[in-house]
Design goal:
By secondary structure, the chain is of the alpha+beta class. The chain contains 14 helices and 31 strands. The strands form 6 sheets. Strands 18-17-23-14-15-22-19-20 form an 8-stranded antiparallel β-sheet, covered by helices on one side. Helix 11 packs across helix 12. It is globular, with a radius of gyration of 25 Å. Bound molecules: guanosine-5',3'-tetraphosphate. Guanosine-5',3'-tetraphosphate binds at residues 18, 20-26, 48, 89, 140-141, 143-144, 255-258.
Length: 526
């Protein structure tokens, strides 16, 4: 195997997602401990936004600023190079999370045993399903009382619309929690509630071995055997291909806080999770190992310090090897660029990178050259697919509050939209600009940044909308007819594509029913 192939095969780039408080930060931290990337618990100043700061977005941005270094956490484990992409816990930054999901090869979802599937998890899973991203589920907080594990599995299937397959099984829960049987490795892992150590586990290939009674008592042994029999009867044999295709999610149980079941999850993860896979570009499919360097920008993080207006553009390498001080083509500008100070994210430090491989994320210092979706290549013209914008859920008209600064305002809006802070639509009926976001905070962020970075003032006017969705049709006549009939509700996005502004779910459903020739899309890529 060539060095390049070897480097790419050992990479595992993934995100951990959850509803706030399910235990994402705790799990991330434990994974970093296993990788030796950190040495003490509590070291992860993650993207987690403190609960007290929910209405103070400046504070949130400060915390987000600090968290640039932890946006990507790379470390080595058992010969694998692991890249964890952190996602903001705060739901107002969901768009950030959606975009991060475009840069990962797989996802681990954390679910709280007591709470089950929550709103945020459902939404994030939709994005994974759309992209067929392989998903593993970690059911957390087994040291607390929660739902019956079989009921939870049913709930996961129904709510997340994915088949599941337990690869470990809990032995009771809460104060009576004894541990798990690791189905994947045929081991009995006994629970010792200790926060910093790896738990010991006993190989237990034959669950009918009477030794089991000695470890967990006869009642529990009997129940475990019955549960496992039921699992084998109900769920098909685990086939790693069904996981890789995004059809089945393996499920693990544990307690991140007590470092229980985490190593088991990680050991299975590195073995079965995908290394970087071929990526579809409009022109052709790009192969991570065979093709020269290419990558795309999936996130831009602005520096909130007005004295340092530079940003960091996050690039996911799709193929080949990135080298420092080498000329690469910025495809949209058709211009050569080279980078002397690209950063890699190892553990919690940013460090200058000399080379990086497909699967890795690097940070490029940016002074306004990049927008989300931009491609860098060794020379070829490539446009990667799979970087959609998602239908926003909150809308306001944006108006100029300082007529002397019209140009600044429009430049500011353009750049903030390129950065992916929100989405801009032009209402065709009245020519007004509408900003669409997924969270209320974004409006405050935009207003503040327009003023402080561009010297422009804006004000917001309300507009009552339920959803904006992209529309298309095979018949130009049908499309024209729809636009004529709904002329008050038609807008175009930044790229000039047609968008339908529905003011209620009912209106949207009626439109879908009444105009069967029109296709309504909830993400900008179709
Ligand atoms: P998040 O990133 O998904 O938002 O969750 P985070 O890891 O911050 O965990 C949320 C809370 O749940 C934390 O408690 C954390 O200690 C707790 N927790 C995580 N894993 C487990 C587990 O396996 N068992 C139990 N019992 N609790 C767990 P907190 O009190 O909100 O915060 P902290 O003061 O402990 O940091």
């Amino acid at each position: 195997m060539s060095e390049l192939t070897n480097e790419i095969h050992r990479r595992r780039t993934f995100a951990i997602v959850s509803h706030p408080d399910a235990g994402k930060t705790t799990l991330t931290e434990k994974l970093l401990l296993f990788g030796g990337a950190i040495h003490v618990a509590g070291a992860v100043k993650s993207n987690k936004i403190k609960k007290t700061a929910t209405s103070d977005w400046m504070e949130i941005e400060k915390q987000r600023g600090i968290s640039v270094a932890t946006s990507v956490m790379g470390f080595d484990y058992d010969g694998y190079k692991i890249n964890i992409l952190d996602t903001p816990g705060h739901q107002d930054f969901a768009e950030d999370t959606y975009r991060t999901l475009t840069a990962v090869d797989s996802v681990i979802i954390v679910v709280d045993i007591a709470k089950g599937v929550e709103a945020q998890t459902r939404k994030l899973m939709e994005v994974c399903r759309m992209r067929k991203t392989p998903v593993m589920i970690f059911v957390n907080k087994m040291d607390r009382d929660g739902k019956d594990p079989f009921d939870l599995l049913d709930e996961l299937e129904q709510e997340l619309k994915i088949h599941v397959r337990p690869l470990s099984w809990p032995i009771d829960m809460g104060v009576k929690f004894k541990g798990v049987y690791n189905i994947f490795e045929e081991k009995l892992d006994l629970y010792t509630p200790s926060k910093q150590t790896v738990t010991e586990s006993i190989q237990f290939k034959d669950i009918n071995n009477p030794e089991l009674e000695n470890h967990i008592g006869s009642d529990m042994a009997e129940r475990l055997r019955a549960d496992l029999e039921l699992i084998e009867g109900v769920y098909p044999e685990f086939d790693v291909n069904t996981y890789l295709k995004g059809d089945i999610a393996p499920v693990f149980f544990g307690s991140a806080l007590n470092n229980f079941g985490v190593k088991e999850l990680l050991d299975c993860f590195v073995r079965i999770a995908p290394s970087p896979r071929p990526v579809a570009a409009e022109e052709r499919e790009v192969n991570p190992e065979k093709d020269p360097f290419s990558g795309f920008i999936f996130k831009i993080h602005a520096n909130m310090d007005p004295n340092h207006r530079s940003c960091i553009a996050f690039l996911k390498i799709c193929s080949g090897k990135f080298e420092r001080n080498t000329n690469y083509k910025h495809v949209r500008f058709n211009k050569q660029m080279k980078f002397s100070s690209a950063t890699a994210f190892m553990a919690q430090k940013k460090e200058t990178v000399d080379e990086a491989y497909a699967g890795d994320i690097i940070g490029l210092p940016d002074t306004g050259n990049f927008k989300i979706g931009d491609t860098l290549t060794a020379g070829e013209i490539l446009h990667f697919k799979g970087l959609p914008s998602f239908s926003p859920e909150m809308f306001k008209y944006i108006e100029n509050a300082d007529p002397m600064k019209t140009k600044q305002l429009s430049k500011g809006i353009d750049q903030l939209m390129d950065e992916g802070v929100a989405q801009l639509f032009i209402h065709q009926y009245n020519g007004r600009k509408i900003i669409g976001t997924v969270g209320q905070l974004q409006f405050e962020v935009i207003q503040y940044r327009l003023l402080h970075e561009y010297g422009a003032q804006c004000k917001w006017d309300p507009i009552h909308l339920y959803k904006a969705c992209w529309i298309e049709s095979d018949s130009q006549e049908a499309l024209d007819n729809f636009k004529k009939r709904k002329y008050q509700y038609i807008a175009v996005d930044k790229e000039g594509r047609d968008v339908f502004l529905a003011d209620s779910n009912y209106v949207l459903q009626m439109a879908q029913q009444d105009f069967p020739d029109i296709r309504f899309h909830f993400s900008s890529e179709f």
